[in-house]
Each structure stands twice: as structure tokens, then as C-alpha cells.
Queue: 2 jobs
Job 1
Amino acid sequence: MSDPVTRLATPGVQALRPYAPGKPLSELEREYGIVDAVKLASNENPLGPSTEALEAIRTGLGEVARYPDGNGFELKAALAARLQVPAEWITLGNGSNDVLEMVARAFLSPQHSAVFSAHAFAVYPIVTQAIGASSRVAPAHDGSRGPKFGHDLEAMLAAVADDTRVVFIANPNNPTGTWVGRAELRDFLERVGDGTVVVVDEAYFEYVDEPDYPDCVRWVAEFPNLLVTRTFSKAHGLAALRVGYGVSQPPLADLLNRVRQPFNVNSLAQAAAVAALADEAHLRDSVRLNRDGMRQLEAGLRALRLDFIPSVGNFVSVDVGRDAGEVYQALLREGVIVRPVDNYGLPGHLRISIGLPAENERLLQALGKVLAA
Ligand SMILES: *Cc1c(COP(=O)(O)O)cnc(C)c1O
């Protein structure tokens, strides 16, 4: 910290640890000389994007000299029709991560705090701390009153203080894959009041097939302080293009728009997202593949006698019963990339994304080999 430039940074940024992404395939192949590596580390869609989306990108290439539509007219119209909400309710982001950052810039300051759960998505503390605001981290369920490691909304409500301006709820959460039900979340929204913005992050919405899982977009009309975020990065398979969105009433959307970069979503991403939204068959195939892959992985993990956190997302966090960092390294040498989650307060776990059947099998074989060694 004695570096003179480092000392010029704000205290929040000085204390910040950068987001640790999944290791890219190219990096593993470069470092280990492996050619057929498998990446199950970033919750990407193993089927890739819709072919319609790819076609839209090709068509859009001729226009890249022009700035994109800064208001995202077509994509907002397509989303509005799909979600049955007015287009003015939608804020587009360079990934939903961008929307989370807009929330921090619009509502947080060094005098304010954000509330989120232990084991919650790593971007919430990053955007909070980068602004200089403080984090109030609510303890997660211990397993007695709700899913172990899952958000405890009673504890989150208790963590809300006078200085709290934002509450982040990941539903389902990454990396735990846990979720909160309709009555519980609704009760939270009613009790927390309108003195704080509540962000419900539904990055994995499309994958969830639980009758009691709430579609929070349906509640936006009733709660002026509610913002629901979703993304094209996960089920729609467009992670590299960076496109996501928030849904809120217009006054909240207007505040986000004030801090939004003018051309935050590029034209290829906008065109691909419109096409992806229309390709319902591809989305169905993606969700089905994920459900089957989750069953395959769960059965394989049980056969290996490993505990895992039951997940409704496209990933599962597994308790490897020993130093997860070593297992992670050993899996890399087997050509399989997964994700250590010690930075999420889960030091004995590895997060595995659902892949194609052969990729899941490759992971299970490698994990069996590594754990037997
Ligand atoms: C992946 C993820 C996101 C954001 O992804 P973007 O690519 O920025 O849209 C947001 N929330 C959670 C919980 C995620 O896992």
C-alpha cells in the first residue's frame, strides 16, 4: 500500500479485491498444454446462442461504424411485449452487472449502506465498496429454518438500517443455487417499506421450474422501489456480448438512466438479444438440457458420496470434503475448469456449471480420479 498512486485511490477502492472470473479455456490450454479442456466455470449456456441470434450479429456487422441506439428502442419494445410491461419500465445494461452498478451510483454514497446475504453474488460488495458505501452482510440460513447457505430474509430485514438505501436479493443466488419463495419475498417487500431500493437479481430466472418461485416483474407495478434484473448471458447464451436489463417503475428507471453510459449496450448485442428473445425453441432446448444435466451431475455426485447444495440454477456447488483449492488445481491438470468459491465464504466447495452430457461425464470422471488419489 506504500505505492504513491495506490494511496491516491478512495479508501473503498484501496480495500477492494477485483472480481475473480472463471479461468478462460485458452489460458488453461496455454499454461498446461492441454488441447481438449472443458470449462464448467462460468454458468455459460453449453449449447451456445440461438442460430437466429448469430445471424442477427452477422447482419449487424455492416453497421458497426455507427453508434448503437442509445435508447435501445427495438430491444426494449421486444422485452416489453414479452414481459407485458411498458417499454419505459426497462433499463438496458452492458450485462445486468452494469445495471447493478447503476444502482450503486444512483443510490449509494459513503454515508449509505447496502444489505445483502452471506454467500451472495460477488458483484454486490464490489459495486457497493467501489462507491465508498458500506456493506451490511446478513447471515445466511444455517439449515434450521430454510435451505442451508440460502438467503435468510428475516436476517436481511433485521440488517436494514437507517442508512440503508439498497438491498440486493439474488433469486436464485449464485453460487449457492438457493432461492426464496413467493410468500416470503412478498412479505419482505411489504415490511421493508419504500425507504430502500430492493434489487431482485433474477439472472437465472429462465431455468427455475418451481411452482412457488416468484416472477417479480409481476410485482413492479405495486412497489415503486423494486428493481428486477435479468440477463441474456446465462440461458440465452450471449455472455460475451454483455446485455442485461432492469425492470422498474419509470421514476427509478429515470434515475438509473441519469448515470448510465450513453451507449452502454452495443448494436450487435441489441440485435442478438432481440433475435434470442424470439427463438423460444432454443430457450426451451437450453432449459431442458440443463435440467437433464443437473440430474446427471447430481446422480454422479451422489455416487461419489459428495454433498452438494441443491440448486435451481445452471450450476451446483459441491462440498469436496477437503481443501477445495487443491481439488481445483488437480482438476485443471485433468483439463477440467470449475470455480473455487472460497471468496464466497464456501472454502470447502467448488462450483460446477452444467455442461453438455459428455462434459458432465468428463467432470465426474476427473473428480472421481482426483478424489481417489
Ligand atoms: C451471472 C450473474 C449476473 C450477471 O451477469 P451479466 O453477464 O452481467 O448479465 C448477475 N447476477 C448473478 C447472480 C449472476 O450469477
Note: The first strand starts at residue 38 and ends at 39.
Job 2
Amino acid sequence: MAVSRNKIEKNLAKIRANIADACRRIGRDPKGITIVAVTKAVDLPTVKNLLDAGLTELGENRVPQLISRAAELDAYIQRRRNPLAGPVRWHMIGHLQRNKVRGVLKATNFIHSLDSLRLAEELQERAEKMDLPPINVFLQVNCSQESQKYGCAVGAAVHLGELIATLPHLRLVGLMTMGPMSASPDKTRLSFTRLREIFEEMRSDKIGGDNFRHLSMGMSGDYTIAVEEGATILRIGTALFE
Ligand SMILES: *Cc1c(COP(=O)(O)O)cnc(C)c1O
């Protein structure tokens, strides 16, 4: 799908207005909220339009596409004359297989989909071998407890987070969840509230220390609810491109 810069800017203005409204309702500062633009369904020229519209945090849910796009964009950024709004950072938001860890670590160090100790240990081992700085990871929790395959169980999250926080090459920066698919707003809110409660419990236990401060939740269909429930990172695709 190809989407013009003009259309992206219009959609972005609408999204930002909705975020500001949600923040006003509950007395939050919108500055504490970052939009990760999810690019899985759009073409490379559209990704460049996102950069021109000022969005530099980009998300992909498949490793091969993330790697190839990170490389293509690097070349584009080096040719560019005008400075960007910020450094371009890729976020791996989809399920990560252990055999893709090496590749993804070459292209990014923001991983939202860490959901098992085995995967954490693989990341730790690879990052150590590759002599990389700490990888920013979010523990993905299956808060909706529906048929979704990914994310650790709610009851396992605190303990798993505690173990992850001890791995020296990982930096546990927060929690991530996906709202339930096509659910009522009440059910969606419940999922987000649950993630926030786990987050608060972990913070009061000082798990992850000062680095642990993000809630990655909210997509095109539910980001205003996520903002009301404390999201600091919204992962938005469709709403930017429709
Ligand atoms: C696709 C995707 C998104 C964005 O979804 P939209 O509904 O297009 O905003 C967010 N998070 C994850 C993990 C995704 O796979």
C-alpha cells in the first residue's frame, strides 16, 4: 500500500488530537506518549513519507522485512539533505523466533515481543557474543487471556520479569500487550488495566529499576483507551494510512 505524506500528516493530526483529548480526560501530559508507526502493510516510499511527517519510531512484526527496510532506509537517510526529527529507531513488535535473534539484533535493539525465558536467554547469549550494548526489551503479556498465541501468562509475568531483569545484556524497559481482537471497549480496557497493574506491582518490587517505565499498548482501534490506562508507547498502523 502506498500512502502520501499529505494523507499521513492529516491522519497523524487526528490521532494526536484524539491522544490529547484522552489525556485531558484523565489529566495526563501527552508528551509522555510515543507513537511507533507500524509499517508492515505499507511500501518503502510510504515509510519515507512517515519520516518526512516527523515519525521516526518505526515498527515491524516480521524480522526479514525489518532487516531489509532498516538497511534501505539507512541508505536513504544518508542521502537526505534535511535533518530528521530524530534518530530512526526500529521496533520489533511481532513474535520473535529464536533462530531470527541474530538477524534482528543487527538491525535493532527494541524488542516488544519477549515472552519466554528461553527467548530471553537466547537474546542474552547472542548479544554477549556479538558484544552489543544492552537490548531494550518489553515483556509481552497475554492480558486478554483469549486465543492469542503469544505473550506470557498473566500469572507468570512478575516472576519472568524478575528473571529477565537479571540478564546483563538485556534492559527490561517495560511491558507490552495486545488488546483482545474485536472485543467490547470494556474488555479491551480490562486487558490494559491488567497490564498496568502488573507494571505497578513490578515497579513497587523495583524490578528493572529506573529503566522499567514503559507500557506498550494500544493500536489503531483502541489507542485512546490505552492512553487512559497509562500507555506510554502506542503501536499504530492502519489509522495512519486509511
Ligand atoms: C499490526 C500491529 C500493530 C498495529 O495495528 P493497527 O491496527 O494497524 O494499528 C500493533 N502491534 C502489533 C504487534 C501488530 O502486529
Note: The two ends are 10 Å apart (CA to CA).
